[in-house]
Amino acid sequence: MGRPVPISTAPRQEQTAGFPSVPALEAASLALVINLVRSGRAATRPELVTVTGLSRKAVTQRVDQALALGLLEDGELAPSSGGRQARTLRFRAEAGHLYSAFVGASEFTAAVMDLTGTVVASHHEDWATDTGPEPTMRQIRSAFTTLARKTGLGRPWAIGIGMPGPVEFATGHLVAPPIMPGWDGFSVRSWLREHYDAPVWVDNDVNLMALGEWTAGVPHDGRDMLFVKVGTGIGAALVTRGRLLRGDRGAAGDIGHTHVTDDPSAVCRCGLTGCLEAVASGWSILEEGTRRVEESARLTASLRRTGRLTLGAIGAAAVDGDRLALEMIDKRSRLVAEVIANLVNFCNPGVLVLGGGILRTGSRFVDVVSSTVHARCNRLVTSGLTVRAASLDHFEGVIGGGLLASSALFATTPLSHWVESGSPLGHATTLQRLSEESA
Ligand SMILES: [Zn+2]
């Protein structure tokens, strides 16, 4: 059996008024049976009878239907519990595929994945999103085309995409993204919907990193997770009881613009002063590093070689013990750690995961955060707390994009709509509308 897949990360479902018709009930129970096997909550027909409360006959009918549609298949015999051995059922993750893209300020990753979010093939590219929405989206589309050619997996069932700025989740619009000039009000979803006959879900980058890490991270933990990303920007996301906390419009966790200093020279890209990002983000370190570059022979050489300093170069210098690089990173680590300690006190997560470009500077950041949190937070908060680095080698965001798309496709209402066709292909417009109504 594959790893467990959360089935509750999609937007909440609308209540259906009145009594559903018999075919609607049949589609809903078929959807339920498929989802129970998909999420690992039931693996055999007898278990499905127990979990659903449906009759044995009804379960047999639904399972036969799911087998015929190619969404489930028979697996091994389950270990005997005294009586006749039941055959296990398996969700066919390869029945369809998803496209996912994870966009950063200066790079993006695109991937083709199966229906459980396992990456089949991926493509990574350095790309500055400040070139604007149209060229960026065209570049992502061309990456999808290359991947489709490579894998033979052309028409996706759905697309998930993460952007490094505030995304209004219901509409897929970016709203005043500080590190993406020219993107304000741009609808990533509308652009992709014009080019693909597939439903599209767009989310903030840190939300998808948290979703990917919570589902596929190692070690798998099922407890509430606070994820903090420190890269070009700074953001946080909270997964609680398997659900992402998005807030009212999708902006929950946007901690980069928390006020942390009254220093008037700490001017932030968002237009305010004193924000955490202004004093602790990747772009603030590039600014300081460029200004003080002559203090480090190593960074001076790097600047001469490539014409500009990069976060990668500063991170590598820190790993090798460069004094300026370490000083700049340590100062920022302490500032971010103080803010994280407040968040940990507020939401009492079981796991605190740290991710983003900061991990390329070695393990110091994780150590500073861990000791600050333990010093600042109540013992009840810290006694069971695990603090660790993200575990998926910077793939958690793109994996999260696939998981977002699959959880939206397999949420009960949309799944009931397409399940009897065996695939959501051809249903994109309705699925997108159902999703918008329930967001
Ligand atoms: Zn700001």
Structural description of this entry:
This protein has a 5-stranded mixed beta sheet, with helices on both faces. Strands 12-11-10-13-14 form a 5-stranded mixed beta sheet, sandwiched between helices. A two-stranded antiparallel ribbon has the order 1-2. The longest helix is centred in the last third of the chain and has 25 residues, at 323-347. The chain has 3 domains: 22-94, Winged helix-like DNA-binding domain superfamily/Winged helix DNA-binding domain (Arc Repressor Mutant, subunit A, Orthogonal Bundle); 96-210 and 395-438, ATPase, nucleotide binding domain (Nucleotidyltransferase, domain 5, 2-Layer Sandwich); 220-389, 2-Layer Sandwich (Nucleotidyltransferase, domain 5), CATH 3.30.420.40. The radius of gyration is 23 Å and the shape is globular. Strand 10 (225-230) and strand 11 (234-240) form a beta hairpin. It is 42% helix and 17% strand. It contains 16 helices and 14 strands. The chain has 439 residues and is α/β, with parallel strands linked by helices. Bound molecules: zinc ion (ZN). Zinc ion binds next to helix 7.
Keywords:
16 helices; 17% strand; alpha/beta; 439 residues; 3 domains; Arc Repressor Mutant, subunit A; 5-stranded mixed sheet; Nucleotidyltransferase, domain 5; binds zinc ion; globular
Distinct small molecules: zinc ion
Global outline? globular
Helicity level: 40-55%
Contiguous uncertain segments of 5+ residues = 7-16
Percent of residues in β-strands: 15-25%
Rounded to the nearest angstrom, the radius of gyration is 23 Å
Number of helices, where a helix is a run of at least 4 consecutive DSSP H or I residues: 16
> Can you identify the CATH superfamily of the largest domain?
ATPase, nucleotide binding domain
The description of the largest β-sheet is: 5 strands, mixed
Task: Report how far the terminal alpha carbons are from each other.
Answer: 31 Å
Domain module count = 3
Order of helices and strands: HHHEEEEEHEEEHEHEEEHHHHHEHHEHHH
Give the oligomeric state of the chains in this entry, treating copies of one chain as homo and distinct chains as hetero: single chain
Strand numbers in spatial order across the main sheet: 5-4-3-6-9
CATH fold-level name of the largest domain: Nucleotidyltransferase, domain 5
What structural category do the secondary elements indicate?
alpha/beta
> What is the CATH architecture term of the largest domain?
2-Layer Sandwich
Rounded mean pLDDT score: 91
CATH class of the largest domain: Alpha Beta
* Number of DSSP E strands: 14
